[in-house]
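Researcher:
Attend to token order:
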Amino acid sequence: MRLTSHQEPTHLRGLSTKGTTRRLWAAALTAGVLAAGLLSGPTASARPVPEPSPTTMSIKSPPGGANVRVLIFYGSAAAGDESPVVNAGIETIEKIGLTGPANQRFKIEATDDASVFTNEKKLGRFNSVVFLTGGGDVLDPDEEAGLEAYMEAGGGFVGIHDAARAEPYSEWFTGLVGARPAANSPTSVQRATVEVGDRLHPATKDLPVQWKRPDQWLNWAKNPSGEVHTVARVRESTYQPGANGNGSDHPVSWCRDYDGGRSFYTGMGGTVSSYDETDFRAHLRGALLWTTRLVQADCKATITGNYKAERLTQPNQPGQSDQIGEPHGLVAAPDGRVLYIGRGGADGSQPVITDWNDPDVGKGKGQIHVYDPKTGKVTLAGELTVFGNKGGGDELTKVEEGLLGIELDPKFEQNSWVYLHYTPHSQINRDTHMAERRVSRFTLDLATDKLDLGSEKVLLKWPVQIHSCCHAGGGMTWDSKGNLYVATGDNNSSGFSGGYSGNNPQPNYKGVSFADARRTAGNTHNLNGKILRIHPEPDGTYTLPEGNLFTGKETAEGGGKTRGEIYAMGVRNPARIFVDKSTDILYAGWVGPDAGQPSPIWGPAKYDTFAVITKASNRGWPYCMGNKQPYRDRNLPDPSQPLGWYDCDHPKNESPNNDGLVNLPPVTGNNVWYSPQGGGPDYPRDANGVPSYKQEEATYRLPWLKGGGQAAMNGPVYRYDAANANATKWPAYWDGKWFIGDFYDADQPRNAVLMDPATQGDGGLPVHSESLKKIVPIGNDGIKNLMDWKFGPDGSLYVLDYGRGFFTSDSKSALWRVTYTGGGPTPAADQLARRTE
């Protein structure tokens, strides 16, 4: 029912000292809280709660008392007739309260009389207050003080659409609603797509991930992301936001624990038709269930102040690597220890040998360190002599070989086995400029954290050219069936093709091509430029699991062959890979070529790439990139002249350097790609499916992504473990989200993305993305150069910062840990409302 309105015009209201009124109100409210059914909850804002009285301290009953009630306030400072939106909203909320499970029902009362906020006995009966108001200065100082005291006592608040315009001069109310509309927000009703990123909150858990609906879409004067917990965002590319749009991060619904109570706001609900939508009603229902204390919800998970990033390792002692090598990968053991590797670069005090006539050319130390969280100490577990120190190669400036990857056996707690992916210096050929890459198994002494270098079992080895830089890859990961995945780079120079497709067949050293990725990544008989999948056996050998891309027995006319270890081909430089063991889906990222802009002659600019690989497949390089965007073929006798465009659906390897099959598996489109111009660039295509590659014609399908200097660093998929008792584990909100990042921290990604299982295996785009740059902090004193990141068994995120140089380590090279400090869902279990008649 509606209460009778007795609201006076604002200019006739009495003026009083707000602070005094607030203190008196709070004392009166707490004294009557037993009858009212509201508990004094923990304060969640900067405003202090009044000192509890003895009466408050003795309260035992949960809020809500015998009946759960919701007050709808629809007072407006605007003159004229009542908005039809108000009537629709009141009717809908009343229906919500009368439906659903009996223990989640509530009664409503509606009023436009703001004096209710100074009636502590009356207001104290309500579990939640809904502002369904046209905005403006609707509360006098006493009334706002009453609302503040109500929240401090553990009340709930739901603001709908124009509620963000209410109390425009109140800083406290701004905090309550979370944000204020920007000037000249669009007023027309437009159909748009809402990305529902929170799959657990009662207001969003049953909504479509991509929710298409019409409404009035407000822009925000200040983006509240990071200060509130955003549960849904509107995708600006699906409507016209006007000049004051918020960009790729445009929150539309959010919540927070505020000033002792719970606040939920949605910018939706600006039209009468909104209240006829089943999904919008579900959205409101979930908001009301949480704010009335009928259910718990986590409204803290994305508030950046609830995370702590701490550096775990100190700078090395001069001339030593007592803390860290040149960071290149990490893995967390079941007992919480973190093992991390240094590729092979020494610090600046040590000489670098680049002369191929010197037996020590390129010699470096691949280092394994162990961080023990129980003691906070680091142990240098061992050093491998690798080819990988800065130097060597035709450029005489860099080399990317060395100690490249680390993984622990699935039964590590029993057998202490550590797998390392590296390039031993002992196997280099200084005459042919060839080396051996291998994956070996070692044993770690768990009592001393020392690696037994004499325990090596070589599982897998293959040749790599080391005349020219680059692209060694290195990442490793396991699936739930005990299969080991090994990522290898295309072992190909970045030069000789203008920064486009690395397909120049001409350059070679003593007969071995070093600028034609068709020799490697595009070759079915070569293990470079691949993600391999093998099943290690206890005796140090391996078998081949079913379902790889090839069996190893395929042959073709002309002698082309395959390797059965190949799971995914056509990857350029996959430094980091990850398998989500709950699904056994592989996630990978790799660095693209160097072209700074697209070319209508040669093809796309550099695309750094992330892919969800659900089955054995060809990911495209060096024929196609992104969403199956082809490059131009080139070949002898004149590689500088472009030939035809590659066919992504029927790629052929016609390189003179190919010893594999000519007809290759079709290319599978990738999920995320970004160039210096932006994220997900796409172009109009001709009748043959060839893009125009005209920069002015590009559209950007992933507007939350930007590029520039780029180096994709794939991350994990987080899995929340409710049985994990560690209070600093990341919240359940992040469960199932895929972490993607870049080595660089400026405009490059550092995001958690949500994929659609129905489309992800065929190159479907992320349906939602959330920036992590304020949680995994960027900047020179933060984690500026992200080299690897994984969750430990404690639910904390461990991150390697490479440092500020290249092919070396410095004072910024470090292992970091990012933990959650915000506490659990609210309200606490003993404060939930118990609805009884």
